[in-house]
Fold these 3 entries.
Entry 1:
Amino acid sequence: MNIIVCIKQVPGTTDVKISEKTNTLVREGVESIINPFDVYAIEEAIRIKEKIGGKVTILSMGPPQAKEAIKEAIAMGADDGILLSDRAFAGSDTWATSYTLSMGIKKISAYDLIICGKQAIDGDTAQVGPGIAESLGLPFVAYVRKIEEIKEGYIRCERMMEEGYEAIEMSLPALITVVKEINEPRLPSLKGMMRAKKAEITAWTAQDLNAEPANIGLTGSPTQVVKIFSPPARPGGEMILGEIGEQAEKLVTRLRELKIV
Amino acid sequence: MSIRVIKDKCIGCKICIKSCPFGIITVDNKLAIIGDGCNLCGACVPACKFKAIVIEKEQKATQDYSAYRGIWVFAEQRKGKVEGVAYELLGEGRKLADKLQVPLSAVLIGDKVTEQAKELIAHGADKVYVYDDPILNNFQDDSYGEVFIKLVAEEKPEIILIGATSIGRSLAPKIAFRIRTGLTADCTGLEVDPLNRNLMQTRPAFGGNIMATIICPNYRPQIATVRHKVMKKAARDAGHKGEIIQKTFDFKSITIKTKVLNIVEEVAKTINIAEADIIVSGGRGLGAPENFKLVEELAQVLGGAVGSSRAAVDAGWMPYSHQVGQTGRTVCPKLYIACGISGAIQHLVGMQSSDVIIAINKDPQAPIFKVATFGIEGDVLQILPALTKQFKKVLGGDY
Ligand SMILES: Cc1cc2nc3c(=O)[nH]c(=O)nc-3n(C[C@H](O)[C@H](O)[C@H](O)COP(=O)(O)OP(=O)(O)OC[C@H]3O[C@@H](n4cnc5c(N)ncnc54)[C@H](O)[C@@H]3O)c2cc1C
């Protein structure tokens, strides 16, 4: 089974804060991590490989330093990695990102299953996975919390819904996006880290992909971010003081006044 | 298409460094340098007082989109009943339609759903496109997607609003990719410019730490998924008139590659947290799994749902479906009661847009108090029963 896992390098979330002075997002240090949801995607791919054999290829689009994220995935147990990197990709929205990644997947050519994280924790759109599937004309299931069965040409999985889940089957090749509940990711092994250190990460540019210039980067992106701002700060809270019984009484009264309950 | 610093104008003042949400601008030798990884978000451009940063775009030849008119709402239904979010979209869609002076239409796809079209009309739809077919019994990306894509090609709306539910957020990217247009995720604010007819879509990103306004000027239709419980439901007006348009689709023309085998409801008894108006959430501060009973009791008295911090889920005290936060669910109920939750940023981003937040924690420094409307400093194990008792008393004996 040939599995491709799409991963995005994102800023380590704990670094993202709003500066009270400048009211903008400040990042202390430049620590980057693999998008947390993508770690579950990597783990699931490795588990499938361990169970039924195959190969796990990591695919990412990003600046040259995203190679580090790919190496981390290799340290976990992925076989190899490819980075799509080109200044021409800058400014991609989810349409252009889906297109570019799908061109990378076409170039890899041998694949049965593509796994993405549910969403990236910076853009938060959850649109890239389904976009890639559509671009490749593949069936897909988003928000997968469990793979019940997978074999040549067939997958049965559970899609997480608001009220529960749905069991869905589809033919392979196909794409899934996964949620946290699907597994418990492993830590990289020492051997894995050694291997990752030596691993050569293939880099492809827009030209290597034969990508249509009108479909990539800012030019290829239908959406434009026109403004970025901090959400209005919540007004200062009110501490409810007194003995426990009193506190409960006061709080309930305040909520009644506000017609919350 | 590129970003550039004009050397003569830049004085190395460093203001742009702070404006960059991605922290990739540096200043060297009194000149700003935009590092690799710039995604051309444009935040630095207006921040520069010296107009030294410019983004140059090759404009796409503007196409004539005058044939694209009208506002559409996807009337998501489950088990034949239209979901609440669709009525919220009708409420918001009505405002946009009136501003642009175009009709508001709903798209209803399912099996034995035609009856529901009348309700959509009573809530403001001028037209309802109905696909009623046993094949469309359950939501499936391929069948629903193909039906929707074909209808868009035929009728050419200028704006499509879809609920940001698991179904909507799966369906919308498929449609947008195929039609080759923009899609803005999980919007919490919508405005329309009557002159250029652009939809200004505001949404949280970075887990709610920043808000972004997004437009899609050169493509039509403009598509947005809209967060549930943010927009106001359309008022019901039995006298509102509308047209029901029955449509059919030739399913032999497509191959459906996915199949829903069964649908399992798990959270019926606890109330789904994405829908709940009141959420009582517990964290590690509860000390032991059995203490979640106190949280459940309060939730029950209030008719609310039970939420959980990641710590409590990781400890195995609560199932993941109850997790609120970055790796769980984003919620925005009217009332959120955080019990023994410290309020790490990953939790806050999932609940800080709730209308009223109550924090109960024994550590006065806990970050949860920063977002709380009301705070109680103290032992959650003592305060919870007192609160439950007080609510029972006030809300009467109908429980
Ligand atoms: C503030 C802000 C708001 C934005 N809002 C929108 C918007 O509403 N609509 C829009 O079209 N674009 C938007 N964008 C752009 C969007 O963030 C980028 O297009 C981004 O490249 C992909 O989207 P995402 O991060 O949301 O990924 P998601 O769609 O959330 O990611 C899902 C999965 O796709 C895979 N994936 C995503 N990106 C990559 C990658 N580069 N390499 C490999 N795998 C990847 C991963 O498996 C990931 O888990 C926004 C950007 C910013 C800064």
Entry 2:
Amino acid sequence: MSTIYILWLRQIKRYLRSKSRIIGSLGQPLLFLVALGFGFGPIFQKAGGGNYIEFLGPGVIAQGILFTAIFSGIELIWDRQFGFLKETLVAPVSRLEIMIGRTLGGATIATIQGVIVLILTLLVGFRPNNLWAVPGAIFIMFLIALLFTALGTAIASTLEDFQGFQLIMNFLVMPLFFLSGALFPLQSAPPFLQTISKVNPLSFGIDGLRQTLTGSSHFGLSLDLTVLGVLTAILFVLGSYLFSKIQI
Amino acid sequence: MTDLAIEVKDLTKKFGDFTAVDNISFEVKKGEIFAFLGPNGAGKSTTIKMLTTLLSPTSGRMEVNGFDPKTQQDQARKSFGIVFQDPSLDDELTAYENMDFHGILYKVSGTLRRSRIKELLEIVDLWDRKNDLVKTFSGGMKRRLEIARGLLHHPKVFFLDEPTIGLDPQTRNQMWSYIQNLNKSEQITIFFTTHYMEEAEKVAQRIAIIDHGKIVAQGTSNQLEKQTKTNSLEEAFLSLTGRKIREEEVSGVDRLRMRRRMFTGRR
Ligand SMILES: Nc1ncnc2c1ncn2[C@@H]1O[C@H](COP(=O)(O)OP(=O)(O)O)[C@@H](O)[C@H]1O
Ligand SMILES: [Mg+2]
């Protein structure tokens, strides 16, 4: 327990100390909200889609979580490069505990980031159905955060350096975001896009958020939660396995 | 119970086709100060990584404090402390937090942990700076902190991989006198690697000369000189390996390697 706690605490401390990282990572969501939300809003409305900010809000929250979570997982590469990973790996603690602590830490940070983005969306006019929806939404945010932190850690366990990083951003994180239901409604998308979005776990996360916050859903909340839960478990086991194989 | 702290038999590590550590055997007695002396790339760090459970060997046997680092990892890990060649602190944490993190991982209980951290930080002269972020520390301060941290859980064997690289002579002397004291008062076994002749000669009770992954000779400084019919460790080294360790060059290469590693991650 204490091992998990101290690893979690380390992540939180590092996060709170890097103000530039917190502020920097809010730039993108804000840009999406303002440029897309206000830019496409009128067209969306005219086409009968309703209030676009209401639609976009959960998508942008999920984007903030996705980026922060993957990044927290990938931070493992930094620890490897700057040597701190060795300190953790020679300690007499199980690799599983290290993995759990790291992942919980990263997921907590990503959830906090999601909550901050939620507040940003409120500022530009997003309104959840009611305030009681928020705790449920935070729970789903945490699930999304866990899933993608575990994914980031699993990937980072197999990488030795930063070279793969751009590749991950361009061929994994960006597609995950753009090919989910974050920016457009899946109902009216062409079939091939719908198919792609069905193998994209982020789609289910966003759908779950949308259901809890605004009451509209494409897949249904129980399917959303099942997919998120099962995938998180699988990625966690995979990540732990890959992590335990790290040699320095 | 044997009186051996480290026992290594026919240990080999290959990276692909390349043999970094080539069938080495040696023993370190409890309470001894033992040095691995060799040029850059000789296989010193690779050996330490195998002994400290970070790398698994290709073949061979080893024991640290009676535990096999390959199969009895946690028991072995509890019994040693280590200062790595490259920095291994969290720069974004304070000196105290780095110590605390270590103490918790090694299950040193609350009050004991706090008193040991204070004691150790005072010894390495960092108690005044305990609440400063490590990124504000000089190279020497970081090294001292790593030494203090490695001793927090009272290990029986202390590994130091090129501990004095980048330190000025004064800090170097202070560091060694502290470690030698510790060795005497607490009977801690010291295993260190170096490419500085005079360091091996002055500090170590026994030396193994390692080159191209092989141990070419081992013994006290005197034995090595006798064996090669020379008058100094430096000449002995020259006669055994056919070359000198040129320190300026070595440390230059070191820096280059470090920098390359930062960008490519290759080792
Ligand atoms: N992970 C690795 N993959 C491939 N080669 C390695 C790896 N680690 C070390 N080596 C090589 O093994 C040799 C010994 O390295 P090392 O043990 O670090 O030497 P030393 O510590 O004596 O300077 C070097 O030639 C080094 O390049
Ligand atoms: Mg080395």
Entry 3:
Amino acid sequence: MRYSVRSLFANALSGHKNWPEQWPDATPKKSYDVIIVGAGGHGLGAAYYLASKYGVTNVAVIEKGWLGGGNTGRNTTIIRSNYLYDESARLYDHAVDLWDGLSQELNYNVMFSKRGVLMLAHNVHDVQSFQRHIHANRLNGVDNQWLTPEQSKEFCPPLDISSQKRYPVMGGALQKRAGVARHDSVAWGYARAAAQLGVDIIQNCAVTGIKRDANGAVEGVETEKGFIAAKKIGVSAAGNSSIIMNMAGLDFPLESYPLQALVSEPVKPIFPCVVMSNSVHAYISQSDKGELVIGAGTDQYLSYSQRGALHIIEHTLAAICEIFPIFKRMRMLRSWGGAVDVTPDRSCILGKTPVQGLYVNCGWGTGGFKATPGAADLLAYTIAKDEPHPINAPFTLERFTTGRLIDEAAAAAVAH
Amino acid sequence: MMLIECPVCKEKRPELEFRYAGEAHIARPEDPDALSDQEWAKYLFIRSNPRGTHFERWVHAHGCAKFFNAVRDTVTDKFVMTYKCGEARPSPEQIAERQS
Ligand SMILES: Cc1cc2nc3c(=O)[nH]c(=O)nc-3n(C[C@H](O)[C@H](O)[C@H](O)COP(=O)(O)OP(=O)(O)OC[C@H]3O[C@@H](n4cnc5c(N)ncnc54)[C@H](O)[C@@H]3O)c2cc1C
Ligand SMILES: [Zn+2]
């Protein structure tokens, strides 16, 4: 069923009791053309684009828990594309292009809101490096502009720009095209659209092994619901990606860390944009429900526990109170964590692997929500054509051997 | 916040006193010039990243300032044991005994 004013009206008359389920809970078939491991936004999106754009409809997405229950449902939903290097600029801008028409395409409101992302500079080094970013972005056709402290305050009134602070605001880099989207809707919208095109979504079914033939090519996956055959497997399992790669005998340059976020009690609209501050380390926006959504930095140690330590949150809130004293008396409602897969250069690995028929999309670490439509499309392309798209071609596993890194870690220094 | 036992100070102290310092027992190459690109990649970038038992380095930054090693479970975050640098990696039996 298409969602429209008409279907809304018709269902209102029957008390909203007859809405069809958005996607059926599939039982696995014996074999598929393509299996995607991990039903986050990236994996569900890849299945959707395989079916809608690349003509491969015999596809299953296999998920260990519930769809969207990984980092897709745990992130602070910041979407931006003002990355430093040419490769990244193209990658993230491709995603932002796709975000633009996504709600219409999926017939599902992902609530993409281009309210602007303002990154604050607090010292001379910040000012210089942001201006360098702005110039690099301009050359790449990516929007990004410099705001003075006064202009920053005008753009984001709750900001304290007084010069008496320990970390005064010395200006900011604003990407107007950037913003936020509703994370759950992204997973649900892709799931529904993919299911309508015949994709099977299999939940509560962890992949426990990858079977390979005598030549080493993949034959299928072992799962909690038995063996499922496929000649092509795309792994998009975020924090658990290296575990699945190990199942195929591959060692990966990944480490999984806790990343936490929290929300406040809901209040009336007060915060019009997204603000990030790398130096004092906090980022904040306000959801349409009214909660302030606040992101912290990663905990320092490896972990799959999907939770972190309280002192990280304390530190983040101290930073928020420093920049926005107006929020000092807000109460926080809840906090949570996810396991993020971090590469040494903080860029993703998206492409083929040394194992025939095995494709990977991982290493998005602390910043892959913004890339969801782009990564999904490029993973689907790579699987369908058995070769990377020019946009993801630089993001190979081999770059860690050749040394041709895409070092966004050095460029940004912190979380995305 | 985790409590971590520093094997030098022999005291359990809050995590805030410590800095994590990556996977343990990754030996610097004896003869760097002899390494192939693959071997360099392995030494520099490949990490085991296991679900479960992990060998890792910590430094008691706001205490004795000494580095030491630890065995920790990455699913529960529980420390199994800590030991001084230079001591051998605990065997699976030693770890199992500590965990029981
Ligand atoms: C607190 C927090 C804040 C963040 N903030 C932002 C932000 O503001 N902006 C941004 O761009 N990014 C942000 N991120 C990062 C972003 O969430 C991720 O990069 C992105 O969502 C990854 O999407 P995914 O679909 O690949 O992963 P996921 O949604 O994690 O999907 C992977 C799926 O694989 C499944 N899986 C794992 N192992 C198996 C198995 N063995 N078998 C079957 N299935 C398996 C998991 O259950 C999971 O559902 C944040 C992350 C966190 C944790
Ligand atoms: Zn000590």
